[in-house]
Design a protein that fits this description.
homodimer, alpha/beta, UDP-N-acetylmuramoyl-L-alanine:D-glutamate ligase, nine-stranded mixed beta sheet, 36% helix, globular
């Protein structure tokens, strides 16, 4: 079952204590697509400028990402420049050039309109809603957002959330969006606006899945080397949605496994810069880390 | 199998956004004892002043805590005054009066010297070592410490750690003690000094157990109401050591379960001020939350 993803494609310049890269492949939709491509087929809707390198296009093609929805328009590609200090949870943005992304209007190709799985990466909630109007019979809609939209377009975001099944969002943003410090209460509030479930991302502490008043908790994989956390959240979303689409089932046990597959993909992603680690994964490695997650969290029950 | 615990007994005045209490029962050894008392018998070594209320003594007696090692000396009991703002991870100390605790010299009663399970709560590492010299054939020694000792007595602390099996310590202190930002590398470093395992406490994010190069991760229990986090770490240690002493086994699977029982006791403790929640628990409630932890973390494996 293929997934429609709408979001950004970018050229990132990133510096961390472990190295730096200029104009590397980035963007929320890009990380999501390559991550999810290990599970199912991806239909990408995004925009790039005339300067977008062919080898990045080839990388996406190699992962069988369908590019009919990737608009190439006059101008320069969206660029983000940022750095991380030793606290790898906190990115410091040094420069943002929206370029062609400033006028991005997602056009969903006719053959994508029957997509059953939809991921709205972090873009303007009004554009997210426009996308949903073009999709005919979605089975599962997940979306991401960020503090920028929570602060600037709260009512538009709430309107979009009415149609969303799963909101994928980080812990601080859950509290900010709900205006509530306690995470469970905040999750309840947000779910009263539409979403049936929340994926709460907690960086190096892992994630929580909130579903019908229940919580499922997954740790992040403890790593000795974290090179670059950029894209961890979108890689997570890719593994999460990818597994759900592949399994074609939306039972609670599927969501639990999907959260672990999301955690697996995020953990690989941060091991190298840009998509350098994600692009050379294989199913054996993904499965191996899934089993390591099992070992990391398993304990015998009691009678 | 009984546990010898050496640490502080205190009168705490605590204010949180959810209420306040004056001269409430507190202290590391107190929280540990009452928590562990649900699993096994406890031998307490600590000191109180003449002002220590009888009803607090009675509370300990009710939990069958052996008080032969509780010294009552002229002067006032150790007092701590602190507050928590909405970030319940961070205590702000308003006042500390060491009083009789300033001259505390742990004297281990003869009948405690054969204790097989020993917990050294957070006191001066030189006193911790003095205790270990008095214990004859311990099977398992665990100890806690804090930034105060890491900064002021690093060499004495390292000397004590040579004889310790399990160090129970919070995440920031692991990094501080090892002088290393990466948690796995820091854990390896500390284990090279003596401890066979580390219990790394992460507040609202739960805990990690590091053992022979392996990690086990446990979340904290998501709660809608956290009234007072004071004593969470010592309640955790009580459940952890209590289960190990009760099970009389030190296999990896026992450590995993012990971490969950620690998490259970900590989660109950923070639901009310002082020992108000811990003191009225029963085994059915403990078991129920253990099973909730199982549900919180369980996922089906893959083939």
């Amino acid at each position: 079952m293929s997934i429609l993803v709408v979001g950004s494609t970018a050229l990132d310049s990133v510096k961390t204590p472990f190295g730096e890269m200029d104009d590397a492949l980035g963007g929320s939709a890009t990380y999501f697509s390559v991550s999810a491509s290990y599970f199912t087929n991806i239909n990408l809707v995004a925009v790039v400028g005339e300067d977008f390198p062919d080898n990045y296009i080839n990388l996406l093609k190699k992962h069988k990402v369908d590019l009919k929805g990737l608009q190439k328009v006059p101008g320069k590609t969206f660029r983000w420049k940022g750095q991380y200090m030793y606290d790898l949870n906190q990115a410091e943005t040094l420069n943002t050039e929206l370029n062609v992304f400033a006028d991005f209007k997602p056009r969903i190709p006719e053959e994508y309109c029957n997509s059953e799985y939809v991921f709205l990466a972090n873009i303007d909630p009004e554009l997210q809603l426009e996308v949903l109007k073009q999709v005919k019979k979605p089975k599962l809609i997940a979306c991401d957002t960020m503090n920028f939209w929570i602060e600037r377009k709260p009512s538009q975001l709430k309107k979009t959330l009415k149609y969303v099944d799963i909101l994928v969002i980080n812990e601080a943003e859950v509290r900010q969006l709900a205006g509530e410090k306690n995470l469970i209460k905040a999750a309840k509030t947000i779910c009263s606006w539409g979403p049936k479930a929340l994926v709460i991302k907690r960086g190096e502490y892992g994630s929580l899945f909130y579903f019908k008043g229940q919580m499922f908790s997954a740790p992040a994989f403890p790593l000795e080397t974290v090179s670059d956390p950029t894209g961890a959240g979108d890689s997570f979303a890719g593994g999460f949605m990818g597994y759900l689409a592949k399994s074609r089932s939306l039972k609670e046990k599927d969501f639990r496994r999907a959260i672990i597959f999301g955690s697996v993909m995020a953990s690989y992603n941060v091991e190298d810069f840009s998509l350098n680690r994600l692009k050379r994964l294989d199913w054996k490695q993904i499965k191996q880390r899934f089993l390591q997650f099992r070992k990391l969290t398993y304990f015998d029950t009691i009678k």
